[in-house]
């Protein structure tokens, strides 16, 4: 079983819509979780860190459910510029295990 | 701060050639990592280092070697390149914060093609 699994999508949404997707992790010892954004196989850029029940940053909200071992990312009022692949990561000591990514496409 | 830098950006190798991918960071991070990313796949950890002089294997170390003689630099060596090593290689670094989050910051990547 992969350590971190994501729905690959793609999620095609209109501008202004809300989109949400999940990431499951198998290592119950993972303490911290991250959402990274990756554009066209450029380097991943840190979007949000999640280490308690959740985190919110503007239009982005991340939730952590330790009992069910998943984290979610919700994007409100989607912009064209939100089109990207979103990578989920979970800590394994000081290493990170990454999911394969969820592709989001926002259309005009 | 330049952050994490990588050279070269692109490289084409012939089968059996060798090369070194360079990675440097100027944030005084003690942890450094090398990943490869194949199309449609997540990041796979090749090697990592927790400080100068200390390196360890990740998930996919075969065909690669690393060294960490300074805090700043973490080069990745490919010996006897094979087509299976065609990939995008990312270097990353992190520090040991009090909250133990271990957020990683990535370099721009090296696109390597082996033909």
List the main descriptive attributes of the protein structure presented here.
heterodimer; A: 108 residues; mainly beta; 6-stranded mixed sheet; 11 strands; B: 115 residues; 7-stranded mixed sheet; 4-stranded antiparallel sheet; 0% helix; globular
Q: Structural class of chain B, please?
A: mainly beta
The number of E-state strands of chain A comes to 11
The proportion of residues forming helix of chain B, as a percent range, comes to under 10%
Classify the beta-strand content of chain B into a percent band. Answer: over 45%
> What low-confidence regions of chain A span 5 or more consecutive residues with pLDDT below 50?
none
In angstroms, what separates the terminal alpha carbons of chain A? 38 Å
Class inferred from helices and paired strands of chain A: mainly beta
Which value, in Å, is the CA radius of gyration of chain A? 13 Å
From the spread of the alpha carbons, the general shape of chain A counts as globular
Please state roughly what percent of the residues of chain A sit in beta strands, choosing from under 5%, 5-15%, 15-25%, 25-35%, 35-45% or over 45%. over 45%
Largest sheet of chain A: 6 strands, mixed
Fold and architecture overview:
- The complex is a heterodimer of chains A (108) and B (115).
- Helix content of chain A is 0%, strand content 56%.
- Chain A is mainly β.
- In chain A, a hairpin with a 2-residue loop joins strand 6 (54-57) and strand 7.
- Chain A is globular and about 40 Å long.
- Chain B is built from no helices and 11 strands.
- Classes of the chains: A mainly beta (108), B mainly beta (115).
SSE layout and pairing:
The complex is a heterodimer of chains A (108) and B (115).
Chain A: E1 4-6, E2 11-14, E3 19-25, E4 33-38, E5 45-50, E6 54-57, E7 60-65, E8 70-75, E9 84-92, E10 95-98, E11 102-107
Chain B: E1 4-7, E2 10-13, E3 19-25, E4 31-37, E5 43-51, E6 54-57, E7 64-66, E8 76-78, E9 87-94, E10 105-106, E11 110-114
Parallel strand pairs in B: 2-11
Antiparallel strand pairs in B: 1-3, 3-8, 4-5, 4-9, 5-6, 7-8, 9-10, 9-11
